[in-house]
Amino acid sequence: MKRTYQPNNHRKSKKMGFMARMKTNIINRRRKKGRKVLSH
User: Fold this and answer.
1) Mean pLDDT of the residues in the chain
2) φ, ψ (nearest 5 deg) of residue 25
3) Are residues 39 and 27 in contact, defined by beta-carbon separation less than 8 angstroms?
4) Rg of the chain over CA atoms, in angstroms?
5) Distance (Å, rounded) from C-alpha 12 to C-alpha 5?
6) Residue 4, pLDDT above cutoff 80
7) How far is CA 18 from each of CA 1, 3, 15, rounded to the nearest angstrom?
8) DSSP 1-40
9) CB-based contacts of 39, cutoff 8 Å, min separation 6
10) CB within 8 A of 20, min separation 6: which ones?
11) Across residues 10-28, what is the average pLDDT?
């Protein structure tokens, strides 16, 4: 019997991952600020 929640990690990383955030301004703003760590 299969459990209900079976996450698709590839699709999730496309939506929530680092590269998805690269498309928005969040990472770029932090890079301009001069942060050492852009995401945990």
Assistant:
1) 79
2) -90, -5
3) yes
4) 15
5) 13
6) yes
7) 34, 28, 9
8) ---S----HHHHHHHHSHHHHHHSSHHHHHHHHT-S-S--
9) 18, 21, 27
10) 13, 14
11) 79
**Is the pTM value of this prediction over 0.70?**
no
CA dihedral of residues 21, 26, 29, 33 (deg, nearest 10): -100
* Torsion angle (degrees, nearest 10) of CA 30, 33, 36, 40: -20
Identify the pLDDT of residue 6. 82
Give pLDDT tens digits for 27-39: 788 888 887 777 7
